[in-house]
Amino acid sequence: MLPLRPLGRTNIPVSPIGFGGAVIGIPRYLDPADRDTAEFEKQADDTVCAAYESGITFFDTAASYGEGRSESVFGRVLEPYRDRVTLATKVAVAPGDDPGKWWDSLHGSLDRLRTNQVDLLQLHGSSWPDEKAHWAIEVAAEWLAEVRSRGLSRFVGVTAEVPSGGLEMMLRSGKFDVLQMAYNVIYQGACDFQRAPFGPIPLAKSLGIGVTTMRTTTSGVLHRLLLRDFPELDPARLSRLAIRYVLSTPQVDCALIGMSRPSEVAAESVSAENWS
Fold this sequence. Notes:
CATH architecture: Alpha-Beta Barrel
Order of helices and strands: EEEHHEHEHEHEHEHEHHEH
CATH superfamily: NADP-dependent oxidoreductase domain
């Protein structure tokens, strides 16, 4: 089984790698397989089941991943183990939204996940320029606080693809428990060790905020770059290299990995063994 570590100040024990649900939800995401077939549905179910059995405890998804397809798979497979796994999902927000849209998204997610409460609800964002960040702190974070007060989520967080001053403001606001950040061996800006270290990941860690990573295996970019000139390389070994790079970063609590086959679960779990 995989070792567990606390997810920042939430103290939720999580496995060093987590299951990123985009690949089993979004049509043709990373591979051309049709997500609407019964064959793929069974394959997705088997993959999530294999992940749970391998010791993965953190499962991250979003309502937008295949219009809820990913959440439905998680709900269907993980319902018997709900008290033994950490479920995280997201809600898309934007200035000018009617908050009723956010409530509808959350309740839809809870229905598909077959639970009355998620462990982590995150603002689904790619970039947070200053103006949007100010709005998120004043408006969206207050909505998240109401979600918590109603017992619909234990903790709240934010996701980001790129560093920004606005994201730093959000982290320093004290209103978010977890940061999910794009970070990997070819995209190191979120945690730059050449400057002591610098970036939103070490900032979050210094504030007690839990840190999870997306794009851990570079969304296949590393593989395409290297295999073009070095076709003899083993793609599985490249994935292990990418995963171990992220796990070697002490500020990272959980590295999310997209998987769509049980064989991938077995290969990626090996990468996380002996990491504590």
